[in-house]
Amino acid sequence: MVLKLFEKLEIGDFLLFLSTILTIYVVQYYYKYFTRVNPLPGPFPFPFVGNLPQYYLWFNGENKKFYEYIYKKYGDICEVQFNERAIVLSRTEYIEKLLTPSTKNSHVVRFPDNEGLEELGIEGKGILLNQDLKSWKYNRQFFSQAILSPKFTNEAIDWTNKLFNELEGYWNKLFLKEEIIKENKNKLDFAAWLHHYTNDMIIKILTGERSYSMAAYFDTLSDEKSDHPLAIVDDSVKLVQALRKHLLGFIMFVNVSSFLRHYVPFFKNKADDLLQNVRFINNRLDEIIKRRRQTIENTPLNEPLTNDMLTSLITANTSRDVNHTKTVGGEALNRPMTDTEIRGIIFDGFLGGTDTTANTISFVTYYLAHNQDVKKKLIEEIDRIFQGDKTRPITENDFQKLKYCEAIVKEVSRVLTIAPVFTRYINKPDEIAGYKWPAGTMFRINADAIHYNKDYWEDPDKFNPDRWMAEGFESKKLSFLMFGGGLRLCPGRKLAMIELVCLIALLYRKYEIDLVDMNAPLKVINGGVTACGELLTKIKHRK
Ligand code: HEM
């Protein structure tokens, strides 16, 4: 019936019909905009696309730069419009309610129920983007229990040493031979190597399986190939690349509407590619989980299992588990986890644990090169602890003593935050930042702006690791958001600090690492997280 009506329309009538619909939409859009609750300053939005034109055309989709601009232009509290309206908060007082670390805090969701995440198949799964509170609590409990156990810490330190030895093996062949140094060819992209290192590290400690990301990178740079079979190397590279693509791309499924993703070629192509990518990751993880279940089943009960997270998750609440019967929020959840639940958790461990750590070390290297006094103090600390021994494995005891090294990691993370903006969404009406907000309001917490605010930090523009060493120093409440805050605070923070501090100590204990070009600006990719694009360094043995 409706179709027949359209068949009778002349092209002119059709265009008139279309423009009427469009006009009604635009009028309704701006009516809603101009009559919104608590209007705040912010960039002017456009129908269908909100502030996407400013985000993509002015700032090339660079999150950090966009929010820097927003803060400078519109102040401590302002608003942006993407798929929905979001209030941007840049003061600690404003975020207190959102980041209260108490189970009474009901504001623990990151995004509204999101058809984009559902389309990606990650809604209600894992931890990072899980909106389903019961399933999130359950998953997070298992994840934290596994990651905080002493055997996991030992495993992390052990693999830091082993993979560092592997890394050195490649560097020895490629960059550290005398003639190479003489010819000034001892140059390497530090960021790339560190990405490959952290990929191999996180895959090993999460799944217990070896990946060969560093080996693959070595193979691309050297005529001599690594000792690992090419097919295995290629295979692990595909997984690592897919995980990175997902990490840098998933935010589009939150920010860009379903209409644009399905019908506008620029967005559709990106969306289709990401969907195919996530299917590939799921298949690969399912294979790994099946294989491990099999191994566990074939291992006699009196024989030990491996200390990776996957094994802990598969055996949780089975006869293999020493802590049988977990409770979550007082509720006993004494069933083993399903493969889909395990996949969601491991997936999020990868996403949370690779780029974040690799980028932080790359940024540390950049800041050390530009702050020789800090580098000197770091080396003094390292030499004091290792007493000139440049080869013995690092231990947990060393990690505990490397306080200045830890201070450097924190200071670099303050001045160059990996997650410059993160979100919370309220399911119940509440008063936040002095305004009453209805349920369904989205907030973006501008960690970057808080890290540079004079009210919380003395000389905030100064890179000064010593501020963390002052007797009794504690950053002001909620003013240091390297790992986020509240109930959704990063559960991988202990592992991250172990990895970062140990690796920095191993690197600077033995090597002199300088930038190839001290005047080159730091190459930063500002997606959902802030990544280091490339960091060209020169490396040689320390005298
Ligand atoms: C330097 C390293 C890291 C940084 C800077 C970092 C930062 C963050 C931040 C800012 C959040 C959001 C917190 C919030 O919303 O309040 C987060 C969440 C998360 N991180 Fe990390 N992270 C790091 C390392 C890791 C590692 C090594 C893992 C795991 C192996 C990990 C796993 C996660 C997970 C699963 C979440 C989601 C938590 C939830 O939603 O409940 N992260 N991280």
TrEMBL record:
Gene3D superfamilies: Cytochrome P450 (1.10.630.10). InterPro entries: Cyt_P450, Cyt_P450_CS, Cyt_P450_E_grp-I, Cyt_P450_sf. Heme binds at residue 490. GO terms for molecular function: heme binding; iron ion binding; monooxygenase activity; oxidoreductase activity, acting on paired donors, with incorporation or reduction of molecular oxygen. Keywords: Heme, Iron, Membrane, Metal-binding, Monooxygenase, Oxidoreductase, Transmembrane, Transmembrane helix. Belongs to the cytochrome P450 family. This is Cytochrome P450.
